[in-house]
Amino acid sequence: MPRHQASCYDAHSPEDVRAEGTDLVTDASTEPIIRAAGLTKRFKRPTKKPGLRGALTHLVRPSYTTMTAVDGIDLEIIPGESVAYVGPNGAGKSTTVKLLTGILVPSEGEITVCGLTPHENRIANAHNIGVVFGQRTQLWWDLPVRESFRLLGDIYELPAVEYRQTYSDLVEILNLQPLLDVPARQLSLGQRMRCDLAASLFHSPPVLYLDEPSIGLDVAVKARFREFIRTMHRERGLTVMLTSHDLGDIEELCHRMIMIDNGKIIYDGALADVTRRFGWEQKLHLTLTEPDPTASSAAGAALTAHRDISVDAPSDTTLTITFDSRAVTSGQLIRDLATEIQLADIRIEETSAESVIRNLYEGRLHFDAEPVDAQGAPA
């Protein structure tokens, strides 16, 4: 293991931080492996009037507007956590990752990763982190994949035994054998993403940043990718920070979610808590004992006492009841329906985390809205 990693691994071995699925058990005294305080990044954008006159004026008297991409972010991530860093396009996700990796220098605030300031210690920081950018490769464009891997082993000064073992593991798990002799420029997007994931982990970093990592992956490869990340997280205590629009990645890999919008953190907490707070819309899928074209109207009449109810009849033998679980329980609805229609089967569909996050992105839900209980009172 490279010497630069000692500060991260010596204090907190994988035995100190264990994950079961997406549940994490940590010591409350564990020091954060990633810390940001007041993190801010501003960019200057040139402003000029159209036409030749505007271009000449800008050359003589340039003017700029300031755009704040990341605005006073405070965050702490402890060793072994798997954190989703999410938000709509342009929210500041990728800028934050670039600040944490040392690619960008903050305008204000402080960052430490494994006790180092990334932009001031870029070489040492590079030994502590792995990074996968979905739209950018770290492979050499004209070299076969195996040669890119060999060069990375030399760059990180990996011992031969460690390199061979890591190489063998990554090639097998990510199914890279057919790609090893192919130049990076000839890989499909999904193939390149698999190779980039392997390249980011050759030096066994304690921290892995994944920026849209599953883009272009087919269903089977995506499942292997997720299982691989879970295994690394569970067995090695790997700290994962994931930015993704694939909400399946978020649900399967992360226990904690940080949501950012307009450069500010608007939520930081358990992913399950978001679903509990906003997942109040539920559906009852009902199968009738026999075809009944009047079942929809009968169900509507039986449920008139309840508010925020909609009844849909996909067929003569099925009904779908959409309801607000804060106002009425599924049990109450079933009791009322059972007096009017004969039911053969009942299935309850709860709102998924994917639906909740999509509604937050689209502005249909808001974190500043006060949660209410089943009677409509503040919770």
Q: What can you tell me about this protein's structure?
A:
The chain is α/β, with parallel strands linked by helices and 379 residues long. The protein has two domains: 3-275, Rossmann fold; 280-350, Alpha-Beta Plaits (2-Layer Sandwich). It has helices at 6-9, 51-60, 93-101, 122-128, 145-155, 160-173, 189-201, 219-236, 247-253, 271-278, 295-302, 330-338, 353-361; strands at residues 18-20, 23-25, 34-47, 63-77, 82-86, 108-113, 129-133, 207-211, 239-243, 256-261, 264-270, 281-288, 309-315, 318-324, 343-349. It has a six-stranded mixed beta sheet with strand order 7-8-9-5-10-11, sandwiched between helices. The chain is globular.
Structural class: alpha/beta
The main β sheet shows up as:
6 strands, mixed
- Low-pLDDT parts are 1-7, 9-29, 370-379
CATH superfamily of the largest domain: P-loop containing nucleotide triphosphate hydrolases
Key structural traits:
379 residues, Alpha-Beta Plaits, 34% helix, single chain, alpha/beta, disordered N terminus, 2 domains
Structure in a nutshell:
This protein has helices spanning 6-9, 51-60, 93-101, 122-128, 145-155, 160-173, 189-201, 219-236, 247-253, 271-278, 295-302, 330-338, 353-361, and strands spanning 18-20, 23-25, 34-47, 63-77, 82-86, 108-113, 129-133, 207-211, 239-243, 256-261, 264-270, 281-288, 309-315, 318-324, 343-349. It has 379 residues and is α/β, with parallel strands linked by helices.
Please give the structural blueprint.
Elements (H helix, E strand, L loop, with lengths): L5 H4 L8 E3 L2 E3 L8 E14 L3 H10 L2 E15 L4 E5 L6 H9 L6 E6 L8 H7 E5 L11 H11 L4 H14 L15 H13 L5 E5 L7 H18 L2 E5 L3 H7 L2 E6 L2 E7 H8 L2 E8 L6 H8 L6 E7 L2 E7 L5 H9 L4 E7 L3 H9 L18
Parallel strand pairs: 5-9, 5-10, 7-8, 8-9
Antiparallel strand pairs: 1-2, 3-4, 3-6, 10-11, 12-14, 12-15, 13-14
